[in-house]
Amino acid sequence: MKNRDIIASIASTLTLVAAFLFPVWFLPVTVNAFGFQKQYLLVAFATIMLMLWIAQSLKNKRVLLSFSTINILPVAAAVVTGVSAFIIPNALHQLSGRFITLTALAVALLFGASVARRVTWNQLLKVWLYTASFVSVLTLLQLTPFSPASLINQVLGTSFPTSLIFNLTESPLVFLTFAIPVGLAGLVSTLKQMNKKSDSLAMNLLKGPLPWSVVTLATAAVTGVAIVTDKNLRPVLLPFQYGWSIAVESFKQLSTFMVGFGPENFTSAFHRFREVSYNTTDMWDIRFGTSSSEILHSLTTTGVLGMGALLLFLLALLMASKKLAKGNPSLLVFVFSQVVLFFVLPFSALTWGVIALTGLVVMSELRRERASAIKDVVVMLSAIQIVPEGSMKAVRTNAGFAYVVSALVVLLGAIGLYMAGRVYASNVMYYLALRSANDNDAVKTYEQQQWAIRLNPTDPLYRRSYANTNLAIAQALSQKGEELTDEERQTMSELLQQSIREARNSATLNPAQTENWETVATVYSQLLDVEGADQWANAALVQAIQTDPVAPGLRLSLAGLYRQLEQPVQAQRLIEQAIELKPDWANAYYNYGDILEAQEQPILAYQAYQQTLQLLPAESEDRKAVQTKLDELKPKAEAALAELQKQQAAQQAQGQQGQAGQIPTPEKPTVPNEQPQVENPPAGFEEIVNNEPASPAPQAEATPTPSGENIVLPEDVGF
Q1: How confident is the model at residue 398 (pLDDT cuts 50, 70, 90)?
Q2: Of 214, 264, 495, 550, which has the fewest CB atoms closer than 10 Å, so is most exposed?
Q3: pTM of model > 0.85
């Protein structure tokens, strides 16, 4: 067998192995044991295809690439995503998520098309039917005392749920997005097989994909019914109208229209641009990291260019499948289902992997059925030559050029793997830190978070968590009171300084991210007795409101700060704004009643508590506390009302008009006309804020290494 054929056989076999692994692959060593691991399985698969391509180039002494629109468009999508990352601050973090996925997709299709030439759709479908059936059986076992999750928890020490929420694909919804297309493709393949006359109908059905399709679709039906009937299983998805309204905001500037807000910046766009009517939904306090569907997510994060490249890629895949439909009608059904998913749901890591493998198989089938659709291109030092099928022997070789190109590809691949590897390792360390925190091991949590930051210093999440950990440890030490030693007092002081630094670092990395400013405000709010802390806490909350202008909770938090600073008038106005934003929020009315009561306005306070009681659910335990407030306040409110009526009677006797005050009770949410402003920004605040998304990437100081390596924590410290 020729060496080239050996490489093709290896590539095709590994493609089928990957097809089996993608739906079931998980490792409980990262925060997301399923989706994140499948993303990096795609990276591993792309790396293997690249290595096989290099081996082929070195062996044949020529640089050969196979091209079609199916593998050119994913390259374009990855390039657009990279460009989008560099138009906003903290480009390296923007390259750590979606960019990795799209780059792996592009590499797998670009280099895999030249080596994975032998894999067929029937082989791939058969593997997926087996895998889907296997996952289906495990899914059904979740309904029995023999739950696979229980066994995994016992063996690995994990805490996966023992209900249908646990699924190897990642979630019940992701299972449906895999099982239904595979099951339908299996049924279509069965219908095609029934036309064969070599065996009896019964034998054709039993030997074919029908049994596996029935198991898969039946389990999908059970899962679908469970999702509909059990609210705990229902996926939390951003309603389409809000995903669309956020995407439309990208049309208002040329840069965001072309390349979006940034591949990892959907949450910031969600905060800034969602409609105020979102506050009337049951999910009003949920922050979404993905849009309603993949097409809207792509449009928001990578603009019309990124979305267009992906849409054209899927359409190219669909058109190629249509050309192959006579021999493989099930392939057309399967690809069509992926195109539908693009419009109705956000893609999971499993979906990206499935699409990558499908793309390779479609190109392999095209090579056999319609050779002209695939262009084999030999790149030489002096020219680029398109080689017709079967004419490869006539192309001259150039070992030196092949070695140079292979070396360059290895170098670029090594750089990419190094960066992706650091992101992976940082996620592992962050997961370990979360486990340590759950075990109340403050020292390990502290050290593991430091490692997460060292490995990936551009992720604001790690900075925020590290800031909160420093603050929590300092607060734990302060509980010792007079028993604190001088060394512990010094440690506590340094921890508080670190907490401040890391909170501000998170805002420096991405000043458009609301959570970063909330962390800054949280840290400074715990230090109000320190000079300047009140200014920073106030400025940070105001900035958080500016990045998320329709969030009622932020206004309530700022009102709470003003109350601590003994500024009740400002606090009252902010609570009124929170009520404007969410008129059905009982907590806002309760706080409103509390501050009105503190300002000796018992009539209005009584009305606010009444409104609170009206908004609270009948089963709420808080109703008793509110009723107690009403009972206590009623005598004062009645006395104040009687006095007010006397005053009104006197005014009417003199021909004047008097009217009792009423609390605001808007029928629908509106955005307040008045927006909080930072009047006297503290030193250093504007430097962080002015690093806006449209500005160049921040300088090196925006991604400092974690401070505190020299701090030695007491071994007995906890949270």
Answers
A1: low
A2: 214
A3: yes
